[in-house]
Amino acid sequence: MTMVWYIDMEGYQFDNKFVAKEIAIVNDDASQCFHYFIKNPQQMPDRPNTPSCYHQFKRHNLEWTFGDYNFSAAISDIRKHIKNEKVFAKGAEKTKFLQKWLPQLEDTVWISTSFKKLNNCFSELCKVKHGIQCARRKVHELMTADKLYKKRVSEVMVLQMIHEMTVAFSKMSLNN
Predict the structure, then answer these.
(1) Enclosing domain of residue 60
(2) What is the CATH number of the domain that holds 27?
(3) Whether 133 contacts 59, CB under 8 Å
(4) 175 in a structural domain
(5) Number of domains observed in the structure of the chain
(6) I want to staple 74 with a disulfide (CB 3.0 to 4.6 A). Which of 43, 69, 125, 129 is the partner?
(7) pLDDT tens digits, 48-102
(8) How many CA atoms are closer than 13 Å to the CA of 49, on its beta-carbon side?
(9) Please, what is the Cα angle at 143 between 27 and 14, to 5 degrees?
(10) pLDDT digits over 17-54, tens only?
(11) Buried (b) or exposed (e) across 89-122, using 16+ Cβ within 10 A?
């Protein structure tokens, strides 16, 4: 059976650029979870001094100079784990950005609930404790929401089949 992966990230967006600061991946049974804090680009030693970057820092609390991996090393490691397996992210911009390295990545357009309202996985907050926008927590939220969605779809399909069978049996008994 093919494994499914989920990915989420946090970072800074400015001047039509995106600088990742945190990336997390988890597989569909949560037996494998990998978490990366990304260093700032070497050619950009200081965080851009814009209101937008300040707001983003306040949102995710990840300092510009904080990190253990450079972006290319993190992506290389992620690709090593994910291989060619299916991967889901939440959000069109994030999906488009990451598809450059993970072409099989799909947006979970069927999950319309915002991360602000997905609150099942606070136990998955990372060790850095930088807040609820933690990519590790959010990737677990995404996995959980996808599983709940698929479970509900299956339940609806079963109910629909039962209804169709009941109607068919009713018609058969009326014909006899």
Answers:
(1) 4-167
(2) 3.30.420.410
(3) yes
(4) no
(5) 1
(6) 69
(7) 889 898 989 988 889 999 999 999 999 999 999 999 999 999 999 999 999 999 9
(8) 1
(9) 95
(10) 899 999 999 999 999 999 999 999 999 999 988 989 89
(11) bbbeebbebbeeebeebebbeebeeebeebeebe
